Amino acid sequence: MNQVIRRCFVVDLIDDDDMIDRYRAWHRPGGPPQTINDAIRADGVRDLQIWMVGDRMVMIMEQDMAMAADRDGKAARDAANPDVQAWDALMRRFQKSLPFAPDRTWVEMERIYDLGEQP
Fold first, then answer.
1. CB distance 44 to 66 below 8 Å
2. What CA–CA distance (Å, rounded) separates 64 from 115?
3. What is each CA distance from 115 to 10, 55, 65, 98, 119, in whole angstroms?
4. Residues 6+ apart with CB under 8 A from 110
């Protein structure tokens, strides 16, 4: 069995109740197009959850370690997939960049604590 890595990302939404409601609707069961779910799974993602408070979102993703290391391959697959490009463009209409990463949306977080590593 392949090793799995947990990765966490963060992004903000445009702070507008209607926009947030529409974003939530796109993420209900059956909301994302099946081709998007298929593309996520094809990248070795075993589990993916998005959590929200206010207009801040955190994505928690568990992915096969080998696939997680192939960031260039994922970027190439996403760029070649018109469904992924359309989904990304649609979702970016609702998202806003974090102040320290003005050119990006989902920003990967750094793990700084692990209870399992504590005495």
1. yes
2. 22
3. 21, 28, 21, 28, 8
4. none
In the block, residue with structure tokens 């399992």:
116
d(CA 62, CA 8): 9
By 3-state DSSP, what share of the chain in percent is helix, strand and coil, each rounded to 5?
Answer: 40, 25, 35
Strand, coil or helix: what is 82?
A: helix
Average pLDDT, the chain: 95
| pLDDT at residue 24 in the model | 97
Q: At what angle do helices 34-42 and 82-92 cross, to 10 degrees?
A: 110
Does residue 100 sit in helix, strand or coil?
coil
Centre a 10 Å sphere on the Cβ of residue 90 and count the other Cβ atoms it contains. Answer: 12
Rounded to two decimals, the pTM is 0.91
Q: How high is the pLDDT of residue 99?
A: 93
Cβ–Cβ < 8 Å for 39, 93: no
- Residue 31, pLDDT > 90, answer yes
